[in-house]
What we know:
Two copies of one chain form a homodimer. Chain A is an alpha+beta fold. The first copy, chain A, is 31% helix and 27% strand. In chain A, strands 6, 7, 8, 9, 10, 11, 12, 13, 15, 16, 17 and 18 form a twelve-stranded antiparallel β-sheet that branches. The longest helix of chain A is centred in the N-terminal third of the chain and has 23 residues, at 68-90. Chains A and B meet through strand 12, strand 14, strand 15, strand 16 and strand 20 of A and strand 12, strand 14, strand 15, strand 16 and strand 20 of B. Strand 14 of chain A pairs antiparallel with strand 14 of chain B.
Amino acid sequence: MCSICLPLFAAAQHPVTFFTRSEAAELKSGINKYPLLTDSYQEIRSQVDAWIGKDVDVPQPKDPAGGYTHERHKANYTLMFNSGILYNITGDAKYATLVKNILLKYAVLNPTLKKHPQATSSSPGHIFWQALNDANWLVYTGMAYDLVYNSFSASERKTIEDGAFKSEVDYFTKDLKNWFNLIHNHGVWACAGVGIVGIATNNKDYVDMALYGSEKNGKSGFMAQMDGLFSPDGYYTEGPYYVRYAILPYYLFANALQHARPELKIFQHRNSILQKALLAGLQQTNIDGTFFPLNDALKEKDFTSNELVTAIDIAWSVYGADKGLLTVAKKQDKVLLSKGGAAIAAAIAGTKDIPAYYPYKTVEYVDGNKGDEGGVSFLRNGKGKDLSTLVFKYTAHGLSHGHFDKLNLNLFDKGNEILTDYGSARFISVEQKYGGRYLPENTAYASQTIAHNTLVVDEASQFNADEKLGEQFHADKLFSDVSNDKVQVVAAKEDNAYKNIHLQRTEYFLQIPGGRKIVLDVFNVNAAGEHQYDLPFQYSGNLISTNFKYNYNGSQQQALGKNNGYQYLWKEAEASVKDSMAQFTFLNHRTFYSISSLIKGEAKIFFTRTGAGDADFNLRREPAYIIRTNAANTAFVNVIEIHGSFDPKAEFSADSYSAVQKIELLQNDNDITVAAVTIGGKQLLVAQCNKDFSKQSKHSYTTFNWTGPYAVWYDGKTLQ
Amino acid sequence: MCSICLPLFAAAQHPVTFFTRSEAAELKSGINKYPLLTDSYQEIRSQVDAWIGKDVDVPQPKDPAGGYTHERHKANYTLMFNSGILYNITGDAKYATLVKNILLKYAVLNPTLKKHPQATSSSPGHIFWQALNDANWLVYTGMAYDLVYNSFSASERKTIEDGAFKSEVDYFTKDLKNWFNLIHNHGVWACAGVGIVGIATNNKDYVDMALYGSEKNGKSGFMAQMDGLFSPDGYYTEGPYYVRYAILPYYLFANALQHARPELKIFQHRNSILQKALLAGLQQTNIDGTFFPLNDALKEKDFTSNELVTAIDIAWSVYGADKGLLTVAKKQDKVLLSKGGAAIAAAIAGTKDIPAYYPYKTVEYVDGNKGDEGGVSFLRNGKGKDLSTLVFKYTAHGLSHGHFDKLNLNLFDKGNEILTDYGSARFISVEQKYGGRYLPENTAYASQTIAHNTLVVDEASQFNADEKLGEQFHADKLFSDVSNDKVQVVAAKEDNAYKNIHLQRTEYFLQIPGGRKIVLDVFNVNAAGEHQYDLPFQYSGNLISTNFKYNYNGSQQQALGKNNGYQYLWKEAEASVKDSMAQFTFLNHRTFYSISSLIKGEAKIFFTRTGAGDADFNLRREPAYIIRTNAANTAFVNVIEIHGSFDPKAEFSADSYSAVQKIELLQNDNDITVAAVTIGGKQLLVAQCNKDFSKQSKHSYTTFNWTGPYAVWYDGKTLQ
């Protein structure tokens, strides 16, 4: 297979992984010119200078994340990397000496290491509890070594390369070969680590394994990861939280390859897939910069995280200036000490009126490396701080970090999460909380279907919460139209999550004349026999009012169920409703939201709150509104309104009531669904096709005629 | 009693209530100079201009707060006031006409009004559901009338004075005489309203009633309110949330009196009590500007509220420039169109480096108009965004807005509320939530003792939650020493809250060498017989770990009790502990906090959460840690630590464990209490006197000797 392997390095110049000598020289001249570069330089310098002349501990690995040895080793690789940068900028040998002294300690320690005593995963680390952290160490330590390479004697190099690096690389590419060859964010880190060390140590074998897998056959390795983990439009299959993480090794290794193997044209690979990945990642953030919490995600992570600083600064130097990136870089308020970082610092110093928000727009991404495994739509309406985003997910599973949430819905408004996704159950880096790892409740609750906003059949999760099964399937988009900001429509289906049950959901994100934004949510379900259907809306806010009576379990309450996440929900209140419209209003920050639900036949409504079964206090306490009905074929029609305002400082509120007066399902069969909503005395009429999604087909309902898969009328006229 | 009444107005010049003609002229010249004044002017102008030439609705009163008629009448008085200001600045008659047309409608409406249909209080309003809002209307409408007085004909004046104002003033000073004469924030508003209308309409009778009560005997009225509601150092007896509200009518009426009755020297009255009140109000805010939520308080209110804009702008013109006020004014980001507002806008335009935070310091206020009714201490440690504030309350009851919370403790750190106070249960201005009024849960839960952080005896609230009884007593400070930032001590006692039970609590806010801040909290209780004692710590954050085993009520949970607020607490978990130190750690934002509790004999610990019994979803869901023991005489010793850091973005945490290893009560009798805390291997020793608080008395415990009421040693040396 060595036809795809490339020749040896023409000339092994150093540094070459993070920046080259000429780039460093160019950068140096900007340090006194551009405030952001000056600050970033001073920050690194004060951090590193505090260690000059001191003995840096390289302890025997012992603790999980959050513990001393974990945090020390993490701090060590950052310290070495930063010191290496300073060595090149200042030329001061003390920075090289600092790196050398630490590396020599690792050269002694690493060959002695076995499986970490706190290891629990199938890919245990040596220095850290999981191999993933060892890969982080390789990435930064590899760059640090390269940055001070020129200061070492040949024998020092040999000591370090054989001692500090070889045992780690061998461990990855031999003992953990299967893990190393995974097409997964761990694999990206592992390959980047081995590849950067390969470039730093002039080891072609390492680089080839990194690029093409341990067998060098191209079935795994970095190139396969470039091809396999992104869809053609840049959607990362594990979701936005994990593209944030993976984008760092992708960009750092690509940056090193650009210098060391320019003939790969790595940044242009697959129509510049790394650029698409970055921009798609940024579009998948809320206006406060936090990544939408699809799949396993911590909600604190935003685009000012270190990974995005690195990716954006490299992207700027590779793909050129970009106004949107400038907005993000300004919020990051620091830059890399690199060519791109210097260019961004110069641009920020020279640009007035950098927009306050990233240029968000409605986007729809396909999933799967061929783009044929469903996708996800982000429907947007509004400007600046008033932006609303409706997230509709019909992707593939998302590898080991995926949740069982096909056809899930989330709503963000004015920077706040309104219809929520729990994200992941984890206190990252907090030792007391299971060593900072994913908590048991992540699997037992957060990834279960009931923790989301999509249909649960018979109190079981989609695919019976079997990851392997879930990985085999994906949902599919049926049609969408986002050409008009005021009428955005997406329909998708899922046929495999529950055996022999067809799920089909259509989202209409509409702006009603007069300014009120509403989501009309039509969820069709078809089964051969009767099932119990639960449609939950996890919401964030305080219940203000309901139009139905409920029983509040005031002195004693019980869990809603026993399994599949239900055991974590307290049943705070329940109601029996019948052939009506159930409506409830809640308040989040300064805005009111109402959900109006068509109730066909008999149904129950539950108000729940997480906390049952949570013996270790691992979950946040969050409320949900759940509609339960028993049926074979039915359609849930819900209207979600964004309305009014609440100003507790000025003691003023406006439009605190829902304007929805009536919901009717006028027709619902295999061919079409027609729903009517009376809003403020006027009728909103929505018709959609359930089988024929052609843009040319003509349809009719009573006196209404339309062409294509859907139509929306308001007050007798086409809404537009 | 007319010896205290003053002569008629020398010459009835207008305007005179809000500003004078010459002040308006001076102000006008600044509008194009100072950006903040320009913006404030433009904002008012665009609001008012939108109504020019339009017919403004003056509807028949019908709705409670949040409803249309309520909000319309509120908007009307603001509109008239602002239009009156613009008339004086621009000289454009259209602004006077706008005011006149609205006033003429009120002149027709007001004489027809009876008790508002939504009235529920003992002081019903006419235009609004409560008379308090009618008083607001009088204050602003009175100023509006005065501002356009010169544009009216004599007959228009008569129509408006007899129609719009007289019926309201008569209603206040006759029908609601008792309420009008109250020494209470309602009374301040009522007197300010009647007084400002009196000045605006040249009605000496109105002004005299406003100043000296409806009987003009000085036992009530504005002067009595200046003397009665503040302590000599400016503490307002209803607490900081209500001084925010009352400060507005105090300042507006005083401002009008300064012009109309300069001989009163109202701003110098009682050693400039209005200045002290304002500065004390500002010291009683958190670093984000929110008022500490003592008594009935909404947590959203901060010093950028309209009331504080008004007070600060007037104070600046009366008492002169003040750097601290400039910081607040900058955050308010708007000014009054007044002499003071213009001066502040000029100062902001001309001052570089306005500090980011108000100059907070440790302050102790006495309560009661003579200063002999207990008080409250705000102990502060740290700078800027790292400021910590310990609030220790031993005040009088606080009139109708007081809570049953003698010897209550709250902790704020880095802008966050750590040991919390529920504040009040209310969604102000939200019609669906009981018309925006205080909710039933405000009395039933938020004001009860268990909702606070102080001792509950036998599951009953202090004074059996009887406001009249509570009003008769106050706690007392025993001693305090705040001369050293690192060792701040306050002790107080309460002997009336529970019959024949002596409560004594001492707070030590200490900075341990190495940087950790701790609170040592010693709560002594003495009774003749055995009682059940509950000491709750309401905390904000997520439980991270405990050093004791507990039973989590995972599939079913019950309320902790049936009465006195206990019925609102879910019992999430409970533990039995004995002769040990119980410890739990929680995380709030980016910092860890631990509470370590000495357990003498047998005790129970409960983890609770609000929500039980809350059938209308009126309460937030908040957790507490409650220590329960049965005893006659005992001392609770708790150590509250602020420690470590959590950075989920950088995935790093540090010092996430408590450093407290042991707590011992070495001696505890009528004379002295000596407690020892082992922290990180070193001993903190605290000795306090329980009877003799003289600064000169000498005491000893084993080999330790000290002078005065307390001593603190760390690692064998006096802590300082």
